[in-house]
Amino acid sequence: MIKTGNKLAILFFLLISLFANSMVLAQEVTVQATLSENNIFEGESVQLDIAISGTALNSLERPEIPSISGLRYLPNRTISGSNYTYVNGKPSLTQSYGFQFIAQTPGSYTVPSIKVTVNGKDFTTKPIAFKVLDPKTIDNGNAERAPDIYVRLEPSTTDPVVGQQVVADVVLYFKSEIDVSNYNTVPGWKAEGFWKEELNNPAQARTTSVIINGIRYKRARLLQYALFPTKAGELTLSPYTLTVRIRNTRRTARDPFNFSFGQENKELKTLPVTLTVGRPPAIENAEYIGAVGDFEIERTIKPNSAYVGESIEIITEIKGSGNLPLLNKPEYDFPESLELYNPQENTVITRDNRLIAGSKVFTDIIIARNDGRYSIPEKRLAAFNPDKGEYEYFTLPELTFEAKIDPNATVTSLEDMRLDIEPVIGLVQWKQKSQTYLRERSSIWVMVFVPFLIFMGAFGYKSYNDKLNNDSGFARSTRAKDKAMEILEEAKNSVDIKEGYHKIQKALSQFIADKLNLPIAGVSGQSLITEIQKKSVDNSVVMEAKRIFDKCETIAYAPNISQEGLEDDVDKTKQLIKDLGKVL
């Protein structure tokens, strides 16, 4: 027989054991917070690690990260891991969390205590002091820390003139213990005040070794842009942002949990760069067409004799390197007796060897309405060469041509157009009406087939209307021309020429996108040209579309465009849309 007193003693002993065990477990739980760097450059990423260790982690809540001054939290980049060990007969479990941040404004800050609940009990981490450093001190020998990796925007010159090509390199610097597997640019970089062209870049960046403030870095040029200032004054290149995938071999060696196998994404941003843009010097008795670079200019005529009414081409070819996309057409003094047509423009550009180079050809089309000998006076043009710091002048010689009357032309007179008509004379003859069977009467067949035709027409209209309402691609394609023509009418009536060309571009882009069922947003003119080329569109139509897109994109830099020129381009775009509508 078991006594009641013994039962109470056993129960008391069990309670004491459980309480003591829970106290031991509670005492063996440790919570620690660490920053990957305590001196962080503005724009640099940093990781806050929280490690919870204990012999038993039965109940564990993920830590709540408070707002930390000087750091911007990246909630989508949190990582976690666990590690279980058995040392000296005792188990040990560690659960870790890694939280990613981007350093903000330079200054001194503190990571506050962070509460962690383990097995129903609250623990707190110790505060961590850190500094956000100014990236401008990277090149300063007094910098408090040399970053492991950073990116720069390095222009070829900081004091160009308006229109001069500036090569801007996006350069990555990283220490030897950093392995860079790939990088991605963040879209949306705008070089305000510049015409921007991306140069051809190698598929794989080559690295070289440099020493900065006594520390060896690897240097890799990732991207190159050709920038052309469009106005004078101080212009600032906004920060360029990219994301790199890296592996820090030094950190991986000391990381017991090996988060993501040592791989991490790092967001890097360049410092803004300010350029002081000047104006080219005064021009001496010549026309300046905005050319800045190393150019050659020639003018030819083809043919130098023609019949009255035939077209003659005045071809101006500009070859070399520089701001080819921004060149204006030279203005020539043509005799008043010549009929002028809208000039044509063709540009061929290469983007290799850190240069925008190629040729730009302007073709003036003229027609003589009377016979005789005509001359186009010589023209003096100026192009600024930034390497020499002076203008180069080109004198285009006088051009002459002769217009003759075609001896084989046929002249038609009123006498040739006279029609010999003789009256019909004679007596009227009456014929007896023949008997016609019912089946031979056309009116009967009309009465039979008209209801059937009406039914088929109504059925076809209903099918068409249903497809128009239910098939968005068909509806876009069907209404594309009408919508484009409405926008073009708005462009034609636009008082602001630049706004008018913006509507021309919108009308043409929307028409092609609607016809091919492409998304309207984010589609460039070049991609639309590529799409219509896939449809075996005639090359002349493709070239006309490219010309209109190029002109619309560069209209901000073509101040000589008149209202008549806008209306003429609207009419040409309407004709282009009709031509495209036949094949798309």
Helix/strand layout:
Blueprint: H1 4-28, E1 30-35, E2 39-41, E3 45-54, E4 71-87, E5 90-103, E6 107-111, E7 115-118, E8 121-124, E9 128-133, E10 149-155, E11 166-174, E12 178-185, E13 194-198, E14 207-212, E15 215-229, E16 233-237, E17 241-248, H2 249-254, E18 263-269, E19 273-277, E20 287-302, E21 305-307, E22 311-322, E23 338-350, E24 357-368, E25 372-376, E26 379-385, E27 390-396, E28 399-404, H3 442-470, H4 472-492, H5 497-516, H6 525-533, H7 539-553, H8 563-581
Parallel strand pairs: 2-9, 20-26, 21-28
Antiparallel strand pairs: 1-3, 3-5, 4-5, 6-9, 7-8, 10-11, 11-15, 12-17, 13-15, 14-15, 16-19, 17-18, 20-22, 22-24, 23-24, 25-28, 26-27
Helix pairs in contact: 3-4, 4-5, 4-8, 5-6, 5-7, 5-8, 6-7, 7-8
Which features characterize this protein?
584 residues; alpha+beta; Immunoglobulin-like; 4 domains; six-stranded mixed beta sheet; five-stranded antiparallel beta sheet; flat
What would you report as the Rg, rounded to the nearest angstrom?
A: 39 Å
Mean pLDDT: 81
What does the largest sheet look like? 6 strands, mixed
Roughly what percent helix? 10-25%
> Strand portion, in percent?
35-45%
The CATH level-2 architecture of the largest domain is identified as Sandwich
Helix tally? 8
- In which order are the strands of the major sheet placed? 23-24-22-20-26-27
Low-confidence stretches: 22-27, 256-261
Structural class based on helices, strands and sheet pairing: alpha+beta
CATH topology of the largest domain: Immunoglobulin-like
Taken from the alpha-carbon principal axes, the silhouette is: flat
Number of domains: 4
The CATH class of the largest domain turns out to be: Mainly Beta
The span between the termini is: 101 Å
Oligomer: single chain
Structure summary, number of beta strands: 28
